[in-house]
């Protein structure tokens, strides 16, 4: 009897360890020449993702930990027209009840839904165009020492963090930085380091934190919109040329510093503002319900 109990007990723990086992996957785009641009498309339905610079000769290095081994990603890469196309797609291929609401998905107690993790490593000697499509989870983009010509992030419900771990601005001019989010938080630190001509941030429900540690090195237009939630904007010194146009509703609480000069009922400028300044930072802010804080 005792022997049967011990075997049953051992089988129980073995079952737990198997159920909690993770599958480790490694993907690389091994090409090193024959192209001028790396276009990386990354799609994951639910995960924690970290992107940063790595010391590697390959342009794309991806390391993944997958809790559900029956949901496998697809990775591909090819060179076409002087562009290296690399793509990783991680979709949930399990059949789901179509009547299941997004609320039940977000707040379900199933830990396995959130345990996929990805480490995306890029090298500093290639030019990148990045396109990320994320379902639910968290995404951390450390863009330090990476030449990026375009970054687009779209997500259903995630917390997206974009920052620079070292004070090294983008060595190339970024055409567009785009982040669109249905629900969650977008946090962008030292946005001036992106060297982006245009930045677009859209959050339907949640929080947008946008910070400039210094002025822009070139002219830039920023469009930031929050449907319902908070928008916190940190500007550099008022000696830099900045124009801020705000669109709010009576349901939005607005806080604006005294150093900004109002030139019409929606528009503020700094004392360093000049209409044709080649380094003008122009911001268009739109908040529906919630709060807007400028500092």
Short note summarizing the structure:
This protein is mainly β and 295 residues long. It has helices at 2-19, 102-106; strands spanning 23-29, 37-53, 60-66, 74-80, 83-90, 117-122, 128-142, 148-163, 174-188, 196-211, 220-234, 242-248, 252-255, 261-264, 267-269, 281-294. The chain has two helices and 16 strands.
Helices and strands in order:
Blueprint: H1 2-19, E1 23-29, E2 37-53, E3 60-66, E4 74-80, E5 83-90, H2 102-106, E6 117-122, E7 128-142, E8 148-163, E9 174-188, E10 196-211, E11 220-234, E12 242-248, E13 252-255, E14 261-264, E15 267-269, E16 281-294
Describe the structure.
This protein is mainly beta and 295 residues long. Helix content is 8%, strand content 55%.
Feature tags:
mainly beta; 55% strand; 295 residues
